[in-house]
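Margin note from the TA: students keep mixing up input and output lines. Inputs are the sequences; the output is the structure of the whole complex. Example:
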Amino acid sequence: MSERDNDIDLLVALHLDDALDAPSAERLFAHLRTDVAARRLLLAAATQATVLPRVALEAGLTRPSAVIIARSPARWWRWSAAAAAAAASLLLAVGWWWTLPSDAVADVRLAVRADLVVMRGGERTAALTVQTGDRLEVGASGARLNWTSEGTGIELDDGARVVIEQLGRHKRLRLERGLLTAEVAPQGEGGLSVITPFGVVDVVGTRFRVQVDDLACAVQVEHGAVRVSGGQDPTPVTVGAGFTVRLAADGQRSAPAPLTLLPTNERANGAEVHARSAPPARVVRLGVETYRASDGWEGDLVDGTIRGRAVAGSPVTRITTPVHRPEGFERFDAALRMTIDLTVDHPTTLAVLLVCDHPDGGTRWLANVQAERRIPAGAQQVTFRAEDFTLTTAGAQPLSASRIVAVAVMTWLPAADLRLRSLELAR
Amino acid sequence: MGSDQLMSRPADRDEGSGDGGGLGQETALRCVLAQEPLLTGFLRAIVGSRQVAEDLFQDLVVLVMRKHAEIPNADAVPGWTRRAARFLALKALEKRARERPTMDETLVDLLEKTWVDDGEPAPDPYVAALVRCRDRLPEHARELLTLRYVHDLSGEQIAAKLGRPLNTIYVTITRLHRTLGECIRARLRGGDV
């Protein structure tokens, strides 16, 4: 092997380990641009890296005879001949299930870590699987529970204390303290419940986090949905993807709020939702009274309303406000309420998209959030709240109190005549 | 604001059942899932990170579920999904470029072209060939690949565990990929290595 080949081999492995620094990346990219063999090698290595874990599962190489050491929470992907059945659950959760022969009720494999303590019957035990009644005290390396027959996994962070209350079709874990991250396959008739000192999280198939400390429990849902009960209000609340709820020691339960409102470190740590005080209340009204063609509206003033324009090459009719930088029209936070006064000629789906910029202003686009609702034909007022909005753009998340610099109101065919009278942002 | 930033179809569309032309949702999904290992591998070659590649495949599936009616027939699925995967990967690279060096669009296009020119293998024969070729590797080689890709240990963790230099671990792993690649190609061509 030449020096060049050695360098390529090293760089390809670094790339697939997500461990390239800037100089190494430039070297790798230079090789790839000029050397088709290097490109073939990278493609081959990446594909093999993707397939090898799957074929290992098929061969049962992760069964209890092998020690499973998981480095970090894994996104679990399975595919099966029942792919069509998975489609129905995909919109709610990444719910793939693996058609391995199922083991007995308690097929929970435990990732063995040097500093994990498993208490069984009051005594410390070295265990590769867990049983009902086991108590786990998690050390610095964390721990992982894998339900191999269904593809559910739970990661426990340093300092977590968990009691296995029930296994089988319906699983119950008591999280006494610490952070739990779960990737849960669709549970069908069964379920997974995480019991905390402040309330219960019932899972139907999702990825979520639960953090418990002395004062509160915070639940953050990344995919799918969970049902949370506890606090003074006996009615369970459903927490959807991209939202968080907090149960406090005084019995207060927060309303579900967008995860996007939290700075990254607060999201990761499951901290309190309302970390920043809301800006002073005000009402911003856009529409016929503020319309000026020269301002850059997408839409035309017709018969005392703003009429939407068809978007070329698509079934969408759209009205867009001018882009308003750097101060924006209003801040996006949990208290935001948007009311739209409009008319449509046909039942349709109404979508409202908010283009958000950084809270400190400037001209850097941050992200879009969108809310949707089926509406009937005719004149009407439609109100959206902050929790109705979800991110439509991958990557950067709107920070708490980001600025709304533009609004788009859209309807889809067969509705073709969208008329806006006003759009109000308030809290 | 570009128009692509303002176009987002609602998730509850009941159009695109395939009745008006194009693939039905279920058929499109089945086709995409059948290609999953190869598509995710392509995405991983671009972004490097396993987790990001798997997230992108998830995004791709959601895209297929929304836009399946745009795919004329099953034969068009590989090309459509490859282009969609490329689009999603470029978007991801754009975001990641703020934190780390990433490929540019020209390089991604080169990778895609190489993948197409070499002929995208059918997933099932590929997986079968990989299994056979893996089983022919010496035990220590299989163990190294298991530590890296099954147990998902980083190169650093493996080097520490085995008491070997980090660069040696990385180079050895890629050499094993070369060996597997040659074996797989031979098997798919019909030869017996």
